[in-house]
# Entry
Amino acid sequence: MTSTLLGTSLVAYFIASVLYLANLHIKHRSVAGYGTTAAVAGFVIQSVRLGMQTAANSTPFANALEAIFFLSWAIAGTYLIILLKFKLPAVGALAMPLSVIALALVYRFPPEAGVPLASGAWLRIHIAAIVASFALFVLAFCCAIFYLVQNKLLKSKKFRGMFRRLPPLETVNSLAYHLAAVGFPLLTLGIVTGIVGVEAARLREHGAGVRLIASGLTWIVYAAYMLAHSSPDWRGRRANWILLVGAVLIALTTALHGFV
Amino acid sequence: MIANMHLVVIGLNHKTAPVEVREKCAVSDGNLPKALATLNACHCVVECCILSTCNRTEIYAVTNTREDEDALVQFMSDYHEVERASFEDKLYRHHGHKAVEHLFRVAAGIDSMMVGENQIVNQIKNAFCVAGESDVTKALMNHLFQQALYVGKRARTETDISRGAFSVGYAAVELARSIFGELEGRSILILGAGKMSELTAKHMQSSGATSIAVSNRTFSRAEELACKLGGRAVEFDRFPEEMLHSDIVITSTGAPDAIVTRGMMKKITRERRRRPIFMIDIAVPRDIDPSAGELDGVFLYDIDDLDTLVQQSISGRKKEIERVRAIVAEEVQKFNVRLRTLEAVPLIKQIRDKYDHLRDAEWARTSSKLSHLSETDQEAIKVMMQSLINKISHDSLLKIKEYASNGDGLGKLEVAREIFGINDEPEVKK
# Structure
């Protein structure tokens, strides 16, 4: 049952991704609408699966794969909230494929393949905060990509192609900042509760040091972004490049937590 | 009734008539009710509507016969007091579904001078409202214009026919929107009180930009333009300071050299903390050093850039015409089906009236024998009679509607007329 729900939501997200990507090129305006229908359907199905998973294990993330599943759900959910508030379906052209990648990873491996995650109140808060912050940073990354592409098109005066379908520069810039501004304290909370949780449970497992370094680097990069956004020299293009670096570190940290 | 009526449009537009002719045949908004009343007074006109814009004057009418369209031409001649010969050869005439198709094309914007322009939808809406208020439209015209407005909306939401700028002013607004999103609350600085910058600023204003500052070497001209635009004048040597707070800068001074240098912009962008600044340089020679556009946060465009955007938009819109034509064709077909269903409406009404008449007659005959019943019981019998009539007539009336919508059922409608004993055609003219 849960695997059927997983497969169905994966298909729905995949359809949404294709439609949102098509929306950047095809001139039929209902394409994005169909994309949203697929995304909402996928999200509802995934929410049911998440509910069942939580009921069965009394936590939404008993192992690393389930945490990635939760990340995929959080990315889709955050995107849908952004869509509702800012009407920016273009963001879905990046957010939904990223959610699909995360979900496909979960689908690819059997449930037992995921590294079991330590239980304990601190570590639960740690995982929830980290995954939520990563979802926000992934969306901030999507906005940064759109910012950089639109900035390039505007600067080079290339008004063809997807120029008219991309979101306004300032909208994505400020959205990226706000997403990161909410994500950053969550990341801080996640790292602190992670350290406290590991100490409390006296877990000195293999790879904990590498993970801590990766998480620390991620924190530094986002701290740098927060500073850059308010700096007179770095705001805009340069600050958005930092979000791209941050996204690479997130992928690395997720891989380290999930598979090492 | 509708089978015996004739939908016709006669008119002239920018493609068929020069402005000298168009202006003679135009009907101003203020004169529209009077013109409609005059037209409706013609014995052969059942319904009518006049669409008059700067690019077209069209009379849509429902007449009793095809020949009656001549009365519309005569109306144009009489009303405007112009010789028929001076405009008759410029007129186009469309009948029946061709007339429907014409209005749908107009509403969709593919018959406009500027393909896909939005103004025409409001003009059609206005023409229809005035005709409605003047009580010169009925079922057919109401259906036609409501559907035309729907087609206009559909063409614009499902295709890119109205997307992109078709003038330098719109191009500037479009670029500003790609940078800032909505322009509400954005501030504009105009350098050089020229006509072009005034027009561009007006476009920005109508799109939501609120605060306007005007700076000009001759301060009195700055004051004059500021007053016109509802903004404030700024002394010319203070404009760099003003740029710190402006989102949009429009320059069109007659200065022989650049008045905004890269060095100046470098300092300004830093002080603005790289908040984007959108600069439009419509002066020739240019007022802003082009290399300033390379700075982060500066989006600089000259008149050629804006013109490129306009040309691209126009060619993009033209590519959408085929898709809009397909929508128009689909909607014309749907409308024709609906129109044919309307053919059955008078017959259905006559049948219902006949049944109602029978019911009333039967009740009048029987009620005296039922005087011993209470009022409530009598009422219940009346309800029962009505319910019986509805049930008996339901299937046959549905079938009549179906015959009408299939289009091949006009003969069948005649049969139905005979079966139900409806011999008289309803009255056609008002």
Summary: Residues 121-156 of chain A form the longest helix (36 residues).
